[in-house]
Amino acid sequence: MDRGEGKLVGKDSNWERALHLYEEIIASGNESLQIKATIKLGHFSNHVPENVLINAIPILVDRIAHCQGGDGDGDLLLAAIVNSGVVPSVLSFLHNSSHFLRLLGLYSDVSRRYLLEILSALALLREVRRVIINSGGLPFLVESAKKGSIVSRARAAHAIMLIGATRRFRRILVELGVVPLLAELLQEGDTSTKIIAGNALGIVASHIDYLRPVAEAGAIPLYAELLQGTEPIGKEIAEDVFCILAVAEVNAVSIAEHLVKILQGDNDEAKVAAAKVLRDLSGYKHSVVYCSKNSGAIPILVDILRNGNGDVREKVSGAIAQLSYDEVDRGALADAGVIPILVSLLRDELEELKDNAAEALINFSEDPLLRDRISEALDIASFQSVQSRLVRIRATDQHTVTLLRQMRVEQFTGDPELRVTCSFLQVREYSFHCLL
């Protein structure tokens, strides 16, 4: 490579020296020379000896990481690296079994681990993920999530999440064993890794065939821990995944048990999240299985409504309002003494508490067995005002929202090919760079 022009020398030249010159150019900070040298490297990449090309990978990966972590100044160099042809040449060693076996003979286990860590870094690029998919490199990406540093494994898990958002590749990833692997990262990783693995596993779980395998991998108690953590995004992910896993009735029972334990604890933020999950799950057909008085959830919710404070009471009142639509749950709520508490909340200063209390009491008023027990509320002016407004809402928006939620669950359970919409789970591509 001529240092002045940023060019790689011909195929008969000293490749080791060419690599050394390329490294110097990359370290020089001269973006114009860096781009020229990278393009030339791509031009000759099919002729470069394997050991030299492999030694060039750390230089490229370090530059990719620098470009991604910067303020956009390295965008042109990053594009040159991706489009130069070097990345497919590197990945060809990984997906071509004969090349890869030769590498295994040349390099120790440590070198293989290093190659896998490099693959996980490259996989953060959309173009590279496309190459991995098209070249049959998914097994190597899954392997990179098993081995190496925790940061590298988290990178691979993030790439798996992005690839797994597509149904066809999700199935392949499951067959390659990502479910127990991601569950392991969710259990053993640091906080950032747990969040990434939890989101990835949630994406993988969003198919009717994978609901039970994900639960059988021990995911439910791990998401319960995430729900009780300090990271807001971790709570958000756990809430979303619980809503997906609970589509399977056996999972719903287990989830309810963990939610009840959280509601009995001292973590107010976790209680808020648990109440939100119970509220969302109340629209499922089998909600009676885990929300009835036999589950223990309703007496605890009523006790929190009576003695709790702040945001906890607001979210619990929302859960109780939703539960009051079911006849069995409505009876359990009445038996737990919720009616006088709801009546007292009609005089509360917080509008959300008033609205939720009124919504629940309206449902009680329409129950022939319970309507007499809310006679006191009928004479309260605030109740009458809220009742009139909520009746209109229930006739339009609330009915539509409830119907759509139920339709979403019924479609998911009835059509194995249906992908869960982003209203439950999001492909949080931003999360990796925010957390690591």
UniProtKB/TrEMBL annotation:
Q: Where are the HEAT repeats?
A: 338-366
Protein's UniProt name = Uncharacterized protein
Q: Where are the ARM repeats?
A: 296-338, 337-365
Q: Which SUPFAM superfamilies match?
A: ARM repeat
